[in-house]
Amino acid sequence: MMKSSQCLIVANPAAGTVSEAIVEEAARIAARHLPAVRTFWTTKRGDATAEVRRHVAQSADEGKRGVVVAVGGDGTVSEVVEGLVGHGGSHDSSSINTVNTMSRSFDQALFVVPAGTGNSNYRSHWGELPWQDALEAGLAGLPGTVTRLDLARVSELEELVVLGAGAGLTAKVLESAREVPLTGRARLAAALDHAAARYTPYEGRVTVDGVVLHEGKTVLANVGGGPYRAWQYTVLPHSVLDDGLLDVCVVGAEVDAVEVPGLLRNAEHIGLPGVYYGQGRQVVIERIDGAPLCFEHDGELKAGIGPRFTVDVLPGALPTLCAPARINGKDLAE
Residues 144, 181: one domain? Predict the structure, then answer.
């Protein structure tokens, strides 16, 4: 047990599978390892960010370290991370040249309880291990189980990106989901099929560190630091959570949009003609016909962004309890 440490559990009752039983179980596990555990239930958007900021400030004043447990979906995780790390516009990734990605130093570390719809953050952190086992192992191994993961920032919005960002088909999914009378991962899968069946590629360009990766008809462009979207789709299979780089995948019109959902499930899109994959510190995604770009990050559609967005990496910005399959550029199973 770490002395002078505490745990804040932030639970979103509006998320997919959040219940009092799940939150109580998380609190019981945390209490076995940390001397103080407190639960906060959100009531509206922004509550999680505000409460975590208060918690971080108070912990700093008292000289305490600890863990913030986010109980909810990827949207809840994004709000908690905003509270932990600060406003997206406050980071200057260009000033960070090297990062010790294996540093165990931290004040407050994140743990994710997957209780939403997609839960892709959890899968990137712990694979398919039951969250109870992951939380037990993460807390028991403190501080050795803390790894500083990369984040990103959308310059035009001055917002943090935790999971990833996408344009084209992967954003249209969120519009289609409103028309699908299902829940959970089945809803997202049906929404992707629905969107793909009616999708028209747009004229786009993707630039990585100043070099054009793709220009022309575009089905989707996805950028981020984690391999998965909507849990079941391995969009960025080469992604490493702490390598200081963003991965980007572009699917051009050579690939029929209807085929994309099946290809993404097992990363079968990689290597196909018309599919472009790259890595870098800055990714610019544009729609070059002047029309607004359909764009999302962390599962939230963003309106009014115009035809272009710029994503910059924030290396090692987020202390996290995790044991991902790939970390520091290596497969742990090897």
Answer: no
Give tens-digit pLDDT for 76-99.
999 999 999 975 444 444 333 333
**Which alpha helices (H) appear in 63-119, and where do they start and end?**
74-85
Tell me the residue range of the domain where 137 lies: 5-151+316-331
Q: Which of 123, 155, 141 is nearest to 246 (CA)?
A: 155
Residue with the bigger pLDDT between 170 and 44: it is 44
pLDDT single digits (tens) 250-268:
999 999 999 999 999 999 9
For CA atoms 68, 74, 78, 79, the dihedral sign is negative
Per-residue burial over 173-198, b if 16 or more Cβ lie within 10 Å, else e, is bbebbeebeeeebebbbbbbbbbbee
Residue 104 pLDDT > 50: no
Q: Could you tell me if 56 and 114 lie in one domain?
A: yes
Assigned token pair, 169 = 């088909």
Please give the tally of structural domains in the chain: 2
Note whether 176 and 135 are same-domain residues. Answer: no
Q: How far apart are CA 63 and CA 51, in angstroms?
A: 18
CATH number of the domain to which 28 belongs: 3.40.50.10330
pLDDT (0 to 100) of residue 105 = 57
What is the pTM assigned to this prediction? Answer: 0.88
Residue 281 tokens, joined = 């510190």
Is the preceding omega at residue 143 within 30 degrees of 0, hence cis?
A: yes
Whether 320 and 125 have beta carbons less than 8 Å apart is answered as yes
